[in-house]
User: Which sequence fits this backbone?
Protein backbone atom coordinates (compact mmCIF):
# COMPACT_ATOMS: atom_id res chain seq x y z
CA UNK A 1 0.00 0.00 0.00
CA UNK A 2 1.42 3.39 -1.01
CA UNK A 3 1.38 6.15 1.64
CA UNK A 4 -1.67 8.42 1.21
CA UNK A 5 0.25 11.52 0.13
CA UNK A 6 2.20 9.56 -2.48
CA UNK A 7 -0.95 7.71 -3.60
CA UNK A 8 -2.68 11.01 -4.33
CA UNK A 9 0.38 12.15 -6.28
CA UNK A 10 0.39 8.95 -8.32
CA UNK A 11 -3.30 9.50 -9.16
CA UNK A 12 -2.55 13.07 -10.22
CA UNK A 13 0.31 11.84 -12.35
CA UNK A 14 -2.00 9.40 -14.14
CA UNK A 15 -4.50 12.14 -14.90
CA UNK A 16 -1.78 14.43 -16.24
CA UNK A 17 -0.47 11.66 -18.48
CA UNK A 18 -3.95 11.06 -19.94
CA UNK A 19 -4.63 14.69 -20.80
CA UNK A 20 -1.06 15.52 -21.88
CA UNK A 21 1.04 18.51 -20.90
CA UNK A 22 -0.15 21.59 -22.78
CA UNK A 23 1.99 24.61 -23.55
CA UNK A 24 -0.15 26.60 -21.17
CA UNK A 25 0.52 24.05 -18.41
CA UNK A 26 4.24 24.18 -19.14
CA UNK A 27 4.31 27.97 -19.05
CA UNK A 28 2.44 28.06 -15.77
CA UNK A 29 4.65 25.43 -14.16
CA UNK A 30 7.94 27.02 -15.22
CA UNK A 31 6.92 30.47 -14.07
CA UNK A 32 5.61 29.13 -10.78
CA UNK A 33 8.76 27.10 -10.17
CA UNK A 34 10.90 30.14 -10.93
CA UNK A 35 8.95 32.29 -8.51
CA UNK A 36 9.12 29.66 -5.77
CA UNK A 37 12.84 29.05 -6.15
CA UNK A 38 13.50 32.80 -6.29
CA UNK A 39 11.94 33.05 -2.85
CA UNK A 40 14.23 30.33 -1.48
CA UNK A 41 16.39 32.50 0.81
CA UNK A 42 13.35 33.24 2.97
CA UNK A 43 12.27 29.60 3.13
CA UNK A 44 14.88 27.93 5.29
CA UNK A 45 13.01 24.94 6.65
CA UNK A 46 15.11 23.64 9.51
CA UNK A 47 13.43 25.86 12.07
CA UNK A 48 12.49 22.85 14.21
CA UNK A 49 16.08 22.46 15.35
CA UNK A 50 16.27 25.86 17.07
CA UNK A 51 12.76 26.18 18.44
CA UNK A 52 11.87 22.64 19.44
CA UNK A 53 12.70 19.99 22.02
CA UNK A 54 16.19 20.35 23.57
CA UNK A 55 18.79 18.20 21.82
CA UNK A 56 19.32 15.86 24.77
CA UNK A 57 15.60 15.09 25.04
CA UNK A 58 15.06 14.34 21.37
CA UNK A 59 14.27 10.77 20.30
CA UNK A 60 17.23 8.78 19.05
CA UNK A 61 18.31 5.23 18.27
CA UNK A 62 21.54 3.57 19.37
CA UNK A 63 22.82 0.89 16.98
CA UNK A 64 25.30 -1.60 18.41
CA UNK A 65 26.93 -3.24 15.39
CA UNK A 66 28.36 -6.01 17.57
CA UNK A 67 24.81 -7.24 18.24
CA UNK A 68 23.34 -7.08 14.71
CA UNK A 69 22.86 -10.52 13.14
CA UNK A 70 21.65 -9.24 9.76
CA UNK A 71 18.15 -10.77 10.02
CA UNK A 72 16.59 -7.70 8.37
CA UNK A 73 13.56 -7.80 10.65
CA UNK A 74 13.96 -4.03 10.94
CA UNK A 75 13.59 -3.65 7.17
CA UNK A 76 10.38 -5.63 7.10
CA UNK A 77 9.02 -3.71 10.07
CA UNK A 78 9.83 -0.41 8.36
CA UNK A 79 8.05 -1.45 5.19
CA UNK A 80 4.97 -2.64 7.07
CA UNK A 81 4.76 0.36 9.40
CA UNK A 82 5.01 2.85 6.56
CA UNK A 83 2.83 0.93 4.07
CA UNK A 84 5.67 0.91 1.56
CA UNK A 85 4.87 -1.06 -1.59
CA UNK A 86 6.61 -4.11 -2.96
CA UNK A 87 6.98 -2.98 -6.56
CA UNK A 88 8.23 -6.25 -8.03
CA UNK A 89 9.86 -9.62 -7.30
CA UNK A 90 13.28 -8.02 -7.02
CA UNK A 91 12.02 -5.75 -4.25
CA UNK A 92 11.24 -8.53 -1.79
CA UNK A 93 13.55 -8.54 1.23
CA UNK A 94 15.82 -11.58 1.15
CA UNK A 95 18.99 -12.49 2.99
CA UNK A 96 20.79 -13.54 -0.17
CA UNK A 97 21.02 -10.20 -1.98
CA UNK A 98 22.47 -6.81 -1.20
CA UNK A 99 19.85 -4.24 -0.27
CA UNK A 100 19.95 -0.57 -1.15
CA UNK A 101 17.98 2.47 -0.10
CA UNK A 102 15.28 3.48 -2.57
CA UNK A 103 12.24 5.72 -2.77
CA UNK A 104 10.18 2.88 -1.29
CA UNK A 105 12.87 1.29 0.90
CA UNK A 106 13.88 3.58 3.72
CA UNK A 107 16.37 1.37 5.53
CA UNK A 108 18.83 -1.29 4.40
CA UNK A 109 21.02 -3.77 6.25
CA UNK A 110 24.06 -5.30 4.57
CA UNK A 111 27.20 -7.18 5.63
CA UNK A 112 30.25 -4.95 5.30
CA UNK A 113 33.82 -6.23 5.24
CA UNK A 114 36.78 -4.53 6.83
CA UNK A 115 39.54 -5.06 9.37
CA UNK A 116 39.15 -4.92 13.12
CA UNK A 117 41.38 -3.00 15.51
CA UNK A 118 43.97 -5.80 15.42
CA UNK A 119 44.01 -5.79 11.63
CA UNK A 120 42.11 -9.06 11.24
CA UNK A 121 39.44 -9.48 8.54
CA UNK A 122 35.96 -8.82 9.95
CA UNK A 123 32.39 -8.72 8.72
CA UNK A 124 29.71 -6.63 10.44
CA UNK A 125 26.08 -6.02 9.48
CA UNK A 126 25.43 -2.32 9.02
CA UNK A 127 22.02 -0.67 8.99
CA UNK A 128 21.58 2.46 6.89
CA UNK A 129 18.76 5.01 6.94
CA UNK A 130 18.34 8.76 7.33
CA UNK A 131 20.55 9.87 10.22
CA UNK A 132 18.16 12.68 11.23
CA UNK A 133 20.88 15.26 11.77
CA UNK A 134 20.41 17.68 14.65
CA UNK A 135 20.99 20.45 12.10
CA UNK A 136 19.89 18.87 8.81
CA UNK A 137 21.40 20.18 5.61
CA UNK A 138 18.55 18.73 3.54
CA UNK A 139 15.89 20.77 5.34
CA UNK A 140 17.99 23.92 5.32
CA UNK A 141 18.40 23.89 1.52
CA UNK A 142 14.86 22.85 0.59
CA UNK A 143 13.34 26.04 -0.88
CA UNK A 144 9.72 25.04 -0.24
CA UNK A 145 9.87 23.24 3.10
CA UNK A 146 9.14 19.81 1.66
CA UNK A 147 11.81 18.46 3.99
CA UNK A 148 11.00 19.80 7.42
CA UNK A 149 12.58 19.32 10.83
CA UNK A 150 9.81 18.85 13.37
CA UNK A 151 10.03 20.49 16.81
CA UNK A 152 10.69 16.99 18.22
CA UNK A 153 13.76 16.64 15.98
CA UNK A 154 12.98 14.11 13.19
CA UNK A 155 13.16 15.32 9.62
CA UNK A 156 10.01 14.47 7.68
CA UNK A 157 9.08 14.74 4.01
CA UNK A 158 5.96 16.63 2.95
CA UNK A 159 5.22 15.37 -0.54
CA UNK A 160 2.59 17.98 -1.37
CA UNK A 161 5.25 20.72 -1.26
CA UNK A 162 7.99 19.03 -3.30
CA UNK A 163 9.00 20.67 -6.60
CA UNK A 164 11.64 18.09 -7.49
CA UNK A 165 14.68 20.39 -7.28
CA UNK A 166 16.65 17.59 -5.56
CA UNK A 167 18.75 20.07 -3.54
CA UNK A 168 18.30 17.65 -0.62
CA UNK A 169 20.07 14.89 -2.51
CA UNK A 170 23.05 17.14 -3.17
CA UNK A 171 23.19 18.51 0.37
CA UNK A 172 22.87 15.25 2.34
CA UNK A 173 26.34 14.13 3.51
CA UNK A 174 25.06 10.56 3.93
CA UNK A 175 23.52 10.33 0.44
CA UNK A 176 20.17 9.22 1.84
CA UNK A 177 17.25 10.89 -0.01
CA UNK A 178 16.09 8.90 -3.02
CA UNK A 179 14.18 10.37 -5.95
CA UNK A 180 11.45 8.56 -7.84
CA UNK A 181 12.61 8.98 -11.44
CA UNK A 182 9.33 7.53 -12.67
CA UNK A 183 7.15 10.10 -10.94
CA UNK A 184 7.04 12.44 -13.94
CA UNK A 185 5.52 15.83 -13.14
CA UNK A 186 4.76 14.86 -9.55
CA UNK A 187 8.19 14.55 -7.87
CA UNK A 188 8.55 12.14 -4.95
CA UNK A 189 11.43 11.74 -2.50
CA UNK A 190 11.80 8.69 -0.24
CA UNK A 191 13.57 8.67 3.13
CA UNK A 192 13.14 7.44 6.71
CA UNK A 193 10.63 9.55 8.65
CA UNK A 194 11.71 8.22 12.06
CA UNK A 195 8.17 6.80 12.27
CA UNK A 196 7.19 10.33 13.27
CA UNK A 197 3.63 10.53 11.93
CA UNK A 198 2.29 7.14 12.97
CA UNK A 199 4.38 6.03 15.98
CA UNK A 200 6.70 8.65 17.46
CA UNK A 201 3.98 11.27 17.93
CA UNK A 202 1.91 8.58 19.67
CA UNK A 203 4.66 7.84 22.19
CA UNK A 204 5.83 4.63 20.47
CA UNK A 205 9.40 3.64 19.50
CA UNK A 206 10.43 3.32 15.89
CA UNK A 207 9.15 0.18 14.16
CA UNK A 208 12.67 -1.01 13.38
CA UNK A 209 13.90 -0.80 16.97
CA UNK A 210 10.75 -2.49 18.26
CA UNK A 211 11.28 -5.39 15.82
CA UNK A 212 14.98 -6.00 16.55
CA UNK A 213 15.32 -9.44 18.21
CA UNK A 214 18.86 -8.95 19.60
CA UNK A 215 18.77 -5.46 21.07
CA UNK A 216 21.09 -4.12 18.38
CA UNK A 217 18.69 -1.18 18.04
CA UNK A 218 17.68 0.71 21.17
CA UNK A 219 15.24 3.61 21.14
CA UNK A 220 15.32 6.40 23.74
CA UNK A 221 16.24 10.03 24.30
CA UNK A 222 19.58 11.14 22.94
CA UNK A 223 21.24 12.00 26.26
CA UNK A 224 20.35 8.63 27.75
CA UNK A 225 21.59 6.73 24.72
CA UNK A 226 24.89 8.62 24.60
CA UNK A 227 25.37 7.78 28.30
CA UNK A 228 24.60 4.10 27.65
CA UNK A 229 26.90 3.97 24.62
CA UNK A 230 29.76 5.38 26.68
CA UNK A 231 29.06 2.90 29.48
CA UNK A 232 29.19 -0.04 27.06
CA UNK A 233 32.44 1.20 25.56
CA UNK A 234 34.05 1.76 28.96
CA UNK A 235 32.95 -1.63 30.27
CA UNK A 236 34.71 -3.36 27.37
CA UNK A 237 37.41 -0.88 26.49
CA UNK A 238 39.58 -3.47 24.75
CA UNK A 239 36.66 -4.57 22.57
CA UNK A 240 34.79 -1.50 21.38
CA UNK A 241 36.16 1.32 19.24
CA UNK A 242 36.38 4.30 21.64
CA UNK A 243 33.98 6.41 19.64
CA UNK A 244 30.25 7.00 19.16
CA UNK A 245 29.55 7.65 15.50
CA UNK A 246 26.94 10.39 15.19
CA UNK A 247 27.66 12.01 18.55
CA UNK A 248 29.60 14.87 16.97
CA UNK A 249 29.65 14.28 13.20
CA UNK A 250 28.33 17.37 11.36
CA UNK A 251 26.91 18.73 14.60
CA UNK A 252 25.47 15.41 15.77
CA UNK A 253 22.76 13.04 14.57
CA UNK A 254 19.78 11.26 16.13
CA UNK A 255 21.11 7.90 14.93
CA UNK A 256 24.11 6.75 16.95
CA UNK A 257 26.46 3.80 16.36
CA UNK A 258 29.02 1.86 18.39
CA UNK A 259 31.23 -0.88 16.97
CA UNK A 260 34.23 -3.09 17.57
CA UNK A 261 35.44 -2.44 14.00
CA UNK A 262 36.62 1.05 12.97
CA UNK A 263 33.74 2.85 11.29
CA UNK A 264 35.70 3.88 8.20
CA UNK A 265 36.47 0.19 7.61
CA UNK A 266 32.72 -0.44 7.36
CA UNK A 267 31.99 2.35 4.89
CA UNK A 268 31.00 5.11 7.29
CA UNK A 269 31.83 8.56 5.98
CA UNK A 270 34.56 10.57 7.67
CA UNK A 271 32.96 13.90 8.45
CA UNK A 272 33.87 16.97 10.44
CA UNK A 273 32.07 18.35 13.48
CA UNK A 274 30.74 21.53 11.90
CA UNK A 275 26.99 21.46 11.04
CA UNK A 276 26.53 21.52 7.28
CA UNK A 277 23.73 24.12 6.95
CA UNK A 278 26.30 26.85 7.61
CA UNK A 279 28.23 25.57 4.59
CA UNK A 280 25.55 24.42 2.16
CA UNK A 281 23.37 27.48 2.41
CA UNK A 282 26.19 29.77 1.27
CA UNK A 283 26.27 27.84 -1.99
CA UNK A 284 22.60 27.05 -2.52
CA UNK A 285 21.48 30.60 -1.76
CA UNK A 286 23.19 31.68 -4.99
CA UNK A 287 21.21 29.23 -7.12
CA UNK A 288 17.73 30.85 -7.14
CA UNK A 289 18.80 33.67 -9.47
CA UNK A 290 20.13 31.12 -11.96
CA UNK A 291 17.04 28.95 -11.63
CA UNK A 292 14.75 31.95 -12.11
CA UNK A 293 16.59 33.00 -15.25
CA UNK A 294 16.27 29.53 -16.73
CA UNK A 295 12.59 29.35 -15.79
CA UNK A 296 11.83 32.71 -17.39
CA UNK A 297 13.65 31.74 -20.58
CA UNK A 298 11.72 28.49 -20.79
CA UNK A 299 8.52 30.40 -20.19
CA UNK A 300 9.29 32.84 -23.02
CA UNK A 301 10.08 29.97 -25.38
CA UNK A 302 6.83 28.26 -24.43
CA UNK A 303 4.88 31.48 -24.96
CA UNK A 304 6.47 31.92 -28.38
CA UNK A 305 5.58 28.39 -29.42
CA UNK A 306 2.03 28.87 -28.18
CA UNK A 307 1.64 32.10 -30.16
CA UNK A 308 3.07 30.49 -33.29
CA UNK A 309 0.66 27.59 -32.90
CA UNK A 310 -2.29 29.98 -32.69
CA UNK A 311 -1.17 31.85 -35.81
CA UNK A 312 -0.64 28.63 -37.77
CA UNK A 313 -3.22 26.08 -36.57
Assistant:
Amino acid sequence: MVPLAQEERVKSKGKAARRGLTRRDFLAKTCLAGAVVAAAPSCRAAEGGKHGVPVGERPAVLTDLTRCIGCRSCMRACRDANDLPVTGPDESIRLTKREELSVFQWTAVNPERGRDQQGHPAVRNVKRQCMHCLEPACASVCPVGALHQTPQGPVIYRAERCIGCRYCMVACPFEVPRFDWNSGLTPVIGKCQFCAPQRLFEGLPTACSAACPTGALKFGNRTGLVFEARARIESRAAYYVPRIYGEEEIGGTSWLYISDVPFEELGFKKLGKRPLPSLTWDVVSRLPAVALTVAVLLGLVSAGLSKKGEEHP
About this structure: The CA atoms of residues 244 and 258 lie 5 Å apart.
